[in-house]
Amino acid sequence: MHAVRNSGDSDGLTLNWMSYSDEETGQELWRENWKGTDPFAQETTSVIPVDVVERAVLTRTLSFSSEFELRDLRIEQTVLVHGQQVEQWDFTFGFVIPQSTNSWTSTIKAATDMIPPEDLSGHMVIQSVFCDAAVPLATQRTRVVFAFPDKD
User: Fold this and answer.
1) What pTM was computed for the model?
2) CA-CA distances (angstroms) from residue 49 to 31, 54, 145?
3) Could you give the CA distance from residue 128 to residue 89 in angstroms, rounded to a whole number?
4) Cα–Cα distance, 75 to 94 (Å, whole number)
5) How far apart are CA 70 and CA 94, in angstroms?
6) What is the mean pLDDT of each run of 10 residues along the chain (152 residues)?
């Protein structure tokens, strides 16, 4: 028996946690846990170590749960700096079993012409629109603040 979709903001989709790891070594560099919160409710702020963006290749893992069957889960991700779109990516997960928890791992390669993290920190928002095929389910916005090492 399939659950009936409600009219909630996230339409049965829950984000559990996300992490970034060094693709080469597998070392986890950062993790955000959303347990007990609703990251779809409003813009969130994530403090990420600056060495995350200094890696050539990262692995991003997103843990999510879905009450409902999704035929073609996708994320349309837009990077905004000072409110202006600078990048857009599309990620496809595919079919999601109802009442399941899943991990979605993607490999992200650094651009060769990146804006310096000092200029991005606090001014960059990553907007992620979660869709089932072409139907938007929920939008999550994260303002990124980079944590720089203390200079002694």
Assistant:
1) 0.86
2) 10, 10, 9
3) 9
4) 10
5) 8
6) 41 92 95 89 94 92 95 96 94 96 92 88 96 94 93 62
